[in-house]
Amino acid sequence: MSSSPAQTPGTPMKRRTGRRILIIAAVVVAVIAITAGVAIARLSANVTTVDLGSDDDAPANVSDYSGSFDLLLVGSDGRDGQGAQYGEGSDVEGARNDVTLMLHVNESHDRASVISFPRDLLIDFPDCTDPSTGRVVPGASGVQFNEALDRGGLGCVASAVEALTGTNTQYAAEISFQGVIELSHTVGGVPVCFEGAIDDPLSGLMVPDAGTYDLEGEQALAFLRSRHGVGDGSDLARISSQQVFMSGLVRKLQEDATFTDLVKLYSIADVATKNSTLSTDLADPLTMVSMAKTLADLPLEETTFVTYPYLPSGNRVVPDEAAAEQLLGLIETDQPIVLDADHLGRGRSLEESPEDEGDDTQEEEEAARETTVPENVDGQSADERTCVIPF
Known about the structure:
InterPro entries: LytR/CpsA/Psr_CW_biosynth, LytR_CpsA_psr. This protein is an alpha+beta fold. Helix content is about 35%, strand content about 20%.
């Protein structure tokens, strides 16, 4: 009787099961790829872009890029398409860069600075090109900084910032009123501490009493636009309160692990692309995701918000060129930017927690810090908890 190799009971079943697992895995991978492709296609369809004509080749994947990078963020006060609640149809014409920020991330991606530019800053505008029309806008002297957007769109804002900082803008975004509202909803509100009540009918900001509130929707926009409700009622005080908001936003995004949650990131990117104009280098969804991955790992204590240095000039301000050179030198050479309690500016104070009451430890620690910035540079790091001072 001939013999045949023994068969292990169940082997055919194991092979079939193995093949099924491989097939299921392949289907899952295909579904994920298709879903990601659809998501990217939808985001791409949302985007309005402008070409800033940067001389530098922007990296396609920021998180894999070994160099530093800059991101220009412009908050527009344009009413076109924003609805009657923002003044559409009134005598408000054009669009100004109501908020202008420049984010710089260092080469090793472990330090970042955000510079806020006063909208009342009088500057000498360079020649610039409106990217949407190709029209060359001639330069002008002693023009208020927030007129850049109306002069020639995002390209002229970038040119103005480049003239003030010596940078070459690779990435830029212009966001609308509605974009601010929707983004604040998407992140679930931003916690902001107030020293007292605020009633600012000009912006619509209503804060009933001292305390910390999650600002969301129209109240978030009203807060960011409020000038007469905070500090000394100036735009410079408004910058301080905006930096309180941004610090709270960064802490919340890191605490909620938003930067590493693809679903949350998609929601934010969806809102951003629908309500923004992006430079062509920034418009690639993969670039936005890789940039978010980079920001996710930034230490809060090494993320600093500062105001561009200025000197008084009547009821406006002008650039303090010497102080700006010192500040920008710190950023360019990747030095830490340290600000003590005397550099908080006009619109905020250090938040006191209940355990700090009657304890001078926090004040002593602040006093022991040696500031590295010029005397007239104000700001804070993202890990500092500060409160808005009412007007």
